[in-house]
Design goal:
Blueprint lengths: L1 H25 L2 H23 L7 H12 L15
InterPro entries: DUF6221
Length: about 80
Amino acid sequence: MDDLVEFLVARIMEDNHAYAYVAGTMGGEALLDSHLPMLDLIEQLANDYTALDAPDSRSDGLAYALRVLGQSYAKHPAYQQEWRP
């Protein structure tokens, strides 16, 4: 699961850079307003999962949520099919 978390955080960082470029060159404020908060929330879930202790009752639910969210990057070459929920 740690590899999925690392994968998601890396994609979020890439997306943040891409959206910053779009906003800076094309005036994509609406794009930023709608997508950046979602990326921040996904990053927060990844960080929350990493901070959990093993016996925490929330770990299964967070793991499932991260697997579902990870599917949005399924076409990325580094995506692994075993991450599917």
